[in-house]
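>> received
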Amino acid sequence: MAGSLLSAVITILVFAAHLVFSFHDNKIFDCYEKLCNRHSYKCSRRLRSCSNCQDFTHGRYCHLCKEGFYGNATRSKDSCKRCPCSPLKSNGSCTHDEISNTVKCHACKVGYAGDHCENCTSGYYKDLKDELCRPCYCSGHGNESLKPQCDPIGGRCYVCLHRRAGNNCEHCLDGHYLKKVNGTEVCAPCNCNGNEHPLANPVCDMKSGMCLRCVKNATGINCETCAHGYEGDAVVAKNCSLIKPKLPGNYKRPTKYLIVGLTTVLSIIIFLLLATSMFIVIRRRKTRDPLGFVTVSMKSTDEDDYNIAWIDPVTGNPIHHNDIDVGMPLANGALAESVGEDYCDEDDLGDSHERESRDTDRML
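>> returned
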């Protein structure tokens, strides 16, 4: 019992002595200025060490910058600065060269290079979205002999092989489509049998290879057949034409000579009709009264007084032939030259004599 009590008293005395000496060290010895480089107020004079270092420092005397910071911690309170190194591109640590006053990041990750790991190494490109370096991706169709294979900014592949195109050689060239051969996807040329539209782009579907625009009256997946309503050879001769209506089996097409003969006969018939029409017109003009008057007989009881008179069809007044003077204007615009035979032809005179005889018989 007495031993336990004595042990407790000794422990209390040691703790009290520690407190006294610690207080004495902090009061008499200035930790902040003398030992800890102004980065801590707590230290032990006996142990000659600092604790609770601030301002991104560490070490026995708070004389070093923490990982990810650079600078000389012994110079000033704010001497430790953060490294300009992204943890995505490096381990985040760096060193400071006081002579050149440059900072260099440590351990750039794969694909990165430069003092700050800001550049991409060969075979990598910088993604413009997040500024991160990514490996060139040409879908396995880039030219591996090129260094680099792609543009360091954006990642567009410089050369695509195997009939490929695109930023990453991800699709086929124009005029080609993706086809599986023995389980491997290859770019095969579109097969439209020469019947594709010259301005078609793309020429065929990129996946199925079906031709999108056929010309020359062709149709089909490969423009290999004639369209509906057309006949011919769309592949070799390329002569698809409209289907003509089928004629009866016993029908014979008219020959060239038959057509010429029919045309000649028709021309002769038309000529004869025209000639006949002209003859009739000319005949009627010759038989028409040239004086423009109608000839009638004048009734008389005396045969000696019977005379032929002319009646003007315009005025209706009778005119004796004895009263017609040479040079007298007639109704049709002509001039009389003489009386009698000069006014009408022989047929007209004969008709006139016959009418006179009939009138004379009636009067007798």
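>> Helices lie at 2-28, 31-35, 256-287, 346-363.
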